[in-house]
Write a structure and sequence with these properties.
Elements (H helix, E strand, L loop, with lengths): L12 H8 L3 H9 L13 H11 L33 E4 L5 E4 L3 H28 L6 H30 L4 H26 L1
Antiparallel strand pairs: 1-2
Length: 200
């Protein structure tokens, strides 16, 4: 207690602390931060020290938000907080129908879009696997082969149609020929449909 300051001032640390209404330890910290103001004669300028301390100290650090030093006026009350609207997030779909998010800012937006895309892809894969297990989907190679086989059978049937019908059409009038040809075409189309159904 009563230690003399080492900066050439004319008062002791205890006297300076008492003048500011703080502990000697706090007064030491204020001096170390360069917040103590001395008059030319070495005496403590209390008003200038208080002003400098309040100007250079963040009142929100280390205590209550309304904390001030040595009786300085309190900070004005902050205005009532208005509810902040959530950031705008627009739904967007690309040409594959994958849901994405646009409008979210920065890296957070990129991460959000990547997660949404990943979840959409996982959902689509799950749907495809389910449809494959239930028989709604077949492998592409199998579908191509069934299509080729059915077309080949239809072509062979159509190419053989003149030979099959030539003797049956002799002597018929136009309406009878039309009816015979129509029945033959419908039989070929039904055979093609049956071929596609069998391949499923």
């Amino acid at each position: 207690m009563g230690r003399k300051a080492t900066d050439g001032s004319s008062y002791s640390i205890a006297e300076g602390a008492a003048a500011l209404g703080v502990s000697e330890r706090t007064f030491d910290r204020i001096g170390a931060r360069g917040q103590v103001v001395n008059r030319p004669d070495g005496s403590l300028d209390v008003a200038a020290t208080i002003a400098r301390r309040n100007a250079t100290t963040d009142p929100l650090r280390g205590g209550r938000p309304d904390r001030v030093f040595a009786g300085a006026p309190l900070l004005p009350e902050p205005p009532a907080a208005m509810p902040r609207p959530a950031p705008r997030v627009d739904r967007a779909y690309d040409d594959r129908g994958d849901a994405g998010l646009v409008g979210a800012p920065g890296d957070a937006g990129k991460l959000l879009r990547a997660r949404v895309l990943s979840e959409a892809v996982k959902a689509k894969l799950g749907q495809l696997r389910l449809r494959e297990r239930t028989g709604e989907l077949i492998p592409k190679a199998q579908a191509v082969q069934a299509y080729a086989d059915t077309l080949a059978a239809a072509r062979a049937t159509l190419e053989a149609m003149p030979l099959r019908l030539a003797n049956r059409l002799v002597g018929l009038d136009a309406p009878a020929i039309r009816t015979t040809l129509q029945a033959e075409v419908e039989a070929i189309l039904k055979e093609m449909a049956n071929g596609f159904d069998a391949a499923r």
